[in-house]
Write a structure and sequence with these properties.
Layout: H1 2-6, E1 14-15, E2 18-21, H2 31-35, E3 41-44, E4 47-50, H3 64-68, E5 74-77, E6 81-82, H4 111-114, H5 120-127, H6 141-152, E7 163-168, H7 171-192, H8 212-224, H9 226-229, H10 231-241, E8 254-261, H11 268-285, E9 289-292, H12 303-309, E10 315-324
Antiparallel strand pairs: 1-6, 2-5, 3-4, 7-8, 8-10, 9-10
Helix pairs in contact: 6-11, 7-10
Domain 4Fe-4S ferredoxin-type: 17-46, 50-79
Keywords: Flavoprotein, FMN, Iron, Iron-sulfur, Metal-binding, Oxidoreductase
Protein name: Nitroreductase
Length: 347
């Protein structure tokens, strides 16, 4: 049983979603290529297609490509499922992803049918998407402060308010921060992925294997840092760190680092995340786009960089937000996994 539990822990045998392109609709604008966080798409003959980037770096079904496509030429079919081993998840879902159905209607009712009856807050929640396509236009500081103010009034355990925010709106500083984060992330890929996969200039052998020492170390790392060593997460880290042209902030004109006082009451990570979500929704209401960029946590590996940024004890970096004006239409409702709800009427 123990062997079965940890089988395929490093690179599980998974079923991935499929990128389907309507070639008649596609105009080759390349927005889907830029919007894919895992770099799974490329332009070929003025049309988009999967770039076959190694077997284990496949679609995470974020559907940003579909949401960003102005021609509605993209469909994502299927879902990420693992049938056995440590990462087994197929038994946790009931059916495929579905579109928003806030009013719980059956039959042929669509989100568009229900939208007129929803509150403005509900509409923002269902339509807001992570933005990875930004204009170069600078965001006024008073607007960034307005977004942060929304975070300040988030609820927190014991009203502890453990957060601290570092705002950066200088593109040179953001670019330097990007490069330093990628240098740290590259070390993570070197530790957790087959060598042929960690350099974009190398085509990469799809059958490449982990070294024996990696096979020995990864189970321990997975226990300690489960979320960061999940196979799709490692693919995302590698996509960023192995490409010299990749910008983890997607060219955004501003970045907000979210920090938390480690001594705070309860879960400071959760509280800071709630503050960040307040900020995301406020930004959206102001016509701004945002994207959560947790790759910024790599700052924590660089003591000199932390000092320059003013990250001092007792604060630690939790995540970050890229922020700017969206380049074209991105907001669109997309399908999500069906909710796991267990009603309890008595004990």
């Amino acid at each position: 049983m123990l062997l079965e539990k940890y089988r395929h822990m490093s690179l599980p045998q998974a079923r991935y979603a499929e990128f389907v392109l309507d070639r008649d609709k596609c105009n080759g604008c390349g927005r889907c290529v830029k919007a894919c966080p895992i770099q799974l798409l490329e332009l070929y003959g003025k049309k988009s297609r999967p770039n076959q980037r190694y077997d284990h770096f496949r679609c995470i079904t974020c559907q940003n490509c579909a949401a960003s496509c102005p021609q509605n030429a993209i469909t994502i079919k299927g879902d990420y499922r693992v049938d056995k081993g440590f990462w087994k998840n197929a038994h946790l879902f009931r059916g495929p992803k579905t579109m928003p159905n806030p009013l719980g209607r059956n039959g042929q009712s669509t989100y568009a049918d229900q939208e007129p009856e929803l509150t403005e807050t509900e509409k923002v929640i269902y339509q807001r998407r992570s933005v990875r396509l930004y204009k170069k236009k600078k965001v006024p500081r008073d607007m960034i402060e307005r977004v942060i103010e929304a975070g300040r009034f988030a609820p927190s355990a014991g009203n502890n308010q453990p957060w601290k925010f570092i705002a950066i709106d200088n593109r040179d500083v953001i670019s330097a921060l990007n490069e330093k984060c990628k240098a740290s992330l590259y070390k993570v890929s070197a530790l957790t992925l087959p060598k042929p996969w960690i350099n974009k200039k190398t085509p990469g052998d799809k059958e490449a294997k982990l070294a024996l020492w990696q096979e020995a170390v990864l189970p321990l790392l997975t226990k300690i840092k489960t979320g960061d060593t999940e196979p799709r997460a490692r693919g995302g880290i590698n996509a960023a760190s192995s490409d010299p042209n990749y910008d983890i902030y997607f060219g955004a004109p501003a970045v907000i680092l979210l920090l938390a006082d480690k001594r705070g009451i309860g879960s400071v990570e959760l509280d800071t995340g709630i503050a960040g979500q307040n900020m995301v929704l406020a930004a959206h209401s102001l016509g701004l786009g945002t994207c959560w960029v947790s790759l910024s946590k790599a700052i924590g590996f660089d003591k000199a960089l932390k000092k320059k940024l003013g990250i001092e004890e007792p604060f630690k970096i939790i995540s970050s937000l890229s922020i700017g004006y969206p380049q074209g239409q991105v907001d669109n409702p997309v399908a999500r996994e069906q909710p796991r709800i267990h009603w309890v009427d008595s004990l």
